[in-house]
Amino acid sequence: MTDAPDLAAALIAENFSRDGGGVLHVGGLPLTDLAEEFGTPLFVYDAEVMRRTYRALRAALAGFAEIDYSVKANPNPAVIRVFHEEGAGAEIASGAEFAAALEAGVPPEKILFAGPGKGAADLDRVVAGGIGEIHLENREEILRVAAAAERHGVTVRVALRINPGAAAQGGAMRMGGKPSPFGFDEEEMEAAIDAVEAQGPLRLIGLHLFAGTQGLKAETLLGQWAYGLGLAARIAGRTGRPLETIDLGGGLGIPYFSGDAALDLATLRAGMPDLIATLRADPSLAGARVVLEPGRYLAGPAGLYVARVLAVKESRGSRFVITDGGMHHHLAASGNLGQIVKRDFPLAAVTETGGERAATAVVGPLCTPLDMLARAAPLPPLAEGDLVAVLQSGAYGLTASPTGFLSHPMPAELLVDGGAATVIRPSE
Question: Keywords for this entry (predicted)?
Answer without folding.
Answer: Decarboxylase, Lyase, Pyridoxal phosphate
